[in-house]
Amino acid sequence: MSIETQVTDSVQRGELLQSQSSPHEALADFEKALSHFPDHPLAIVGLSNILLDIYCKVIPPESLHEHGVSSTLSTPLPTLLSTTEADARKPHLASSAPSAENQVSPPELNRLAARDRAHGLLSSLTKLGSGWDYSEAWFALARSYEECGQIEKAMEVLWWCVELEDTHPTRGWSSVGVGGFVL
């Protein structure tokens, strides 16, 4: 089986698992596809949507039943600050120097890392990669900007999605050329 076939199978399986509410298994398939083809638009968008769902706490960061063993996240982790103390101190986290006030719990760091990874993948795909005209990638990027608090950028990207959809061709550009559809 060729690499391209394996990548396509992984992406299709990931999309199927995601639609069947198995995001962690889908995450693994998207990661497998990206390990073979790092600029695959469908895999990046699928993975990024799952990562943004983890950030928004729609799904837990890890599967609750991984290989028949309950996850370590099913038991509460000790935190340095209570949630009310952490919420009270959040606006004061201006310094990047490590201190007791700037301590963020590991689950919070994992959520932020998921959001930032999704944003990085989508940014590189839409601006540098093969997804410059892929409106689903731009839509996911708008969601990422919104989660980062950059509402103006999110609105700009959403308008770009509208423009892409308005000018979306009936056939892809790959069908124009030698051996393909010719006008």
Task: Explain the overall architecture.
This protein has seven helices and two strands. Helix 1 runs antiparallel to helix 2, helix 2 packs antiparallel against helix 3 and helix 5 packs antiparallel against helix 6. Strand 1 and strand 2 form a beta hairpin. The protein is globular and about 65 Å long. The protein is mainly α. About 15% of the residues have low confidence. It starts with a helix and ends in a 17-residue tail after the last helix. Helices cover 57% and strands 2% of the residues. It has a domain of 93 residues: Alpha Horseshoe (Serine Threonine Protein Phosphatase 5, Tetratricopeptide repeat). It has a two-stranded antiparallel ribbon.
- Percent range of helical residues: 55-70%
Order of helices and strands: HHHEEHHHH
Q: Give the end-to-end Cα distance, rounded to a whole number of Å.
A: 35 Å
CATH C-level category of the domain at 3-66 and 104-132: Mainly Alpha
The CATH topology of the domain at 3-66 and 104-132: Serine Threonine Protein Phosphatase 5, Tetratricopeptide repeat
Number of strands: 2
What structural class should be given to the helix and strand makeup? mainly alpha
Strand order of the largest sheet: 1-2
Shape, per Cα inertia axes: globular
Which segments are poorly predicted (pLDDT under 50) over 5 or more consecutive residues?
Answer: 67-86, 88-94
Largest sheet: 2 strands, antiparallel
Estimated radius of gyration:
20 Å
What is the annotated CATH architecture of the domain at 3-66 and 104-132?
Alpha Horseshoe
Mean pLDDT: 78
* Percent strand: under 5%
